[in-house]
């Protein structure tokens, strides 16, 4: 059970293969590569993979401060301009290796094997690195696609329910950002916390082929691809406000809820728009609504005052306006700019509150002090 397709990029075309039990093939093809692997997955590497660097997949390591350490490890491993890198891990490993591979000796070829569902359905294609800096998430980064992407669904067995839900939120986001039919086709693939290998391959393939259109038409995030920020601007704020107690994938799910609540209040949705937005909300709530205990041990308590502070400094905003992706009147997505005013902040805070009320999550709202 395997499927392949190609993605076009400015640096050339790279192949994407979705299947199972692909790791041994990589090692046979690149026995002399330097394998950069998530520490908890190192024991899955065959012994033939001699040169290896372990990285703890921690948010703190997805930073500018960590990059010199990885570059030093590459030197210790004997990497030179002819060395091929193989990255094995989730989004944190991908971000760190994308960045390091692009700057080490002005660029090394590399292969990526995503091991989290989130990286399998989304970030494994597109070639972006997103690195935390100065206390803010994904403040810096670049574009440097791998030579090959191999999605091995057997790694899904290593994931807990929260990681699977987070990956599915990213897949739902991509498909909804494309069009409502793509979202319905995604749901028809039977995404869920427990999937067969065949169901997983179908979900991943559909998500990646949908994203492929975005990245090929707008590789450098200038127009259409910006719609894939749906859920991210609000979600990143929630991640940062909880010191990453809310994971990225769950943050995206929550961020979509916030965006939907903002649209319900500030956009005159048509009947079709209301139906489409409601369908998306129900899909998210099914994972992290009242039955969230299936996914989370204990929801992180959210200080919305801090979330708003983090939201204010998102890199996508402009000096005089917030840039957010929300459903338009018909329920399709649009990137809009809204003025930075106290009234706008009140409305955004209201959308945060409404989203958390919808799923019965604990949060703390800023106290408004009325002048005497």
TrEMBL record:
Residues 168-316 form the 3-dehydroquinate synthase C-terminal domain. Its cofactor is NAD(+); Co(2+). The keyword Metal-binding applies. Keywords: Cobalt, Lyase, Metal-binding, NAD. It comes from the Bacteria. Its EC number is 4.2.3.4. CDD domains: DHQS. One of its GO terms (molecular function) is metal ion binding. GO terms for biological process: aromatic amino acid family biosynthetic process. Residues 54-163 form the 3-dehydroquinate synthase N-terminal domain. Pfam families: DHQ_synthase (PF01761), DHQS_C (PF24621). The keyword tRNA-binding does not apply. SUPFAM superfamilies: Dehydroquinate synthase-like (SSF56796). This is 3-dehydroquinate synthase. It comes from Rhodopseudomonas palustris (strain ATCC BAA-98 / CGA009).
